[in-house]
Amino acid sequence: MLSLSFIVPFMILLPSFVSATAINGPSRSELKNYYTRSHSLGDNYKFDSREWHSVNVTNLDYKYDQPLQERDKKAPGTENTGSKNMGGTISHLINDIWNGLKGLGKSETVKITWYTGHDLLNPSCWANSEWAPTDHSFACALTLEGWESQPKCFKFLELCNGPQKCVFVRVVDSCAGCAPGSKHVDLTRGAFSQLAEVDKGVLNVQMRQASEPNTWYEELWGPRH
User: Fold this and answer.
1) pLDDT in tens, 47-56
2) What is the mean pLDDT of residues 154-167?
3) How far is Cα 129 from Cα 70, in angstroms, rounded to an integer?
4) 3-state class of 168 per DSSP?
5) DSSP string of 86-142?
6) By C-alpha distance, which of 207, 208, 210 is closest to 110?
7) Cα torsion for 147, 144, 105, 215, to the nearest 10°?
8) For 121-134, how does the pLDDT look when each residue is reduced to its tens digit (9 = 90+)?
């Protein structure tokens, strides 16, 4: 179950949700802002050391120079557009937060870096796609091979730099320059910056898989299927 501290930031934003709804109808932009900000697991949240495993990773400075691999694609989903009335809109937004993206299951410790520029192009989770993440997307690239428990393409992950700074990202690419068997998570600049200053470059964080959002933002996560 989500902690109260996880929901509080959203509740603080409710006045702006109501205002936007009264004037313009349902505000997708406000919900999008929620997904592009770090969230907290709560002041009292404690990571269980029995669920974490240390791994080794190096800084990433690579070019995706290996052939693209076609991966299994997720089935098409239906976007939840919400209600047209104010009460329905607020209920819809709360439902998106409560039943949408949230961390699931056991976690492991990984080290993260960030990538930008031409490395964002041609994400390997699609055989052919015109879409590519930008610095403002919330997406990541993982080790190309040898990571036996590696999350699959299109899965969502929750990454936490302590319990107070967590973000959700979607797996969209592979890291051809990462050492086989190592657990690398290379983030877009926007996602990394919600966990730490980009000048930090490399740091340890906690990672676990996450559920899928109810409302979809292609600019953040790429095509749904």
Assistant:
1) 654 444 433 3
2) 94
3) 11
4) strand
5) HHHHHHHHHHHHHHSS-B-S--EEEEEEEE-GGGGSS-TTSSS-S----TTS-EEEE
6) 207
7) -170
8) 999 999 988 999 99
Please tell me the distance from the alpha carbon of residue 189 to that of residue 217, in angstroms, as a whole number.
17
Rounded to an integer, what distance in angstroms lies between the CA atom of residue 20 and that of residue 62? Answer: 43
Please provide the CATH number assigned to the domain covering 45-81+103-221. 2.40.40.10
- Cα–Cα distance, 204 to 136 (Å, whole number): 22
Query: How many other CB atoms sit within 10 Å of the CB of residue 109?
Result: 16
Quote the CA–CA distance of 35 and 169 in Å, as a whole number.
9
Measured CA to CA, the distance from residue 224 to residue 217 in angstroms comes to 9
Q: Are strands 156-160 and 108-115 parallel, antiparallel or unpaired?
A: unpaired
Which alpha helices (DSSP H) does the chain contain, by range? 4-12, 14-24, 28-35, 86-99, 189-193, 218-221
Contact yes or no for 183/151 (Cβ under 8 A): no
What is the residue extent of each domain of the chain? 45-81+103-221
pLDDT of 166 > 90? The answer is: yes
CB 81 within 8 A of CB 217: no
Cβ atoms within 10 Å of 157's Cβ, excluding its own? 24
Whole-prediction pTM = 0.69
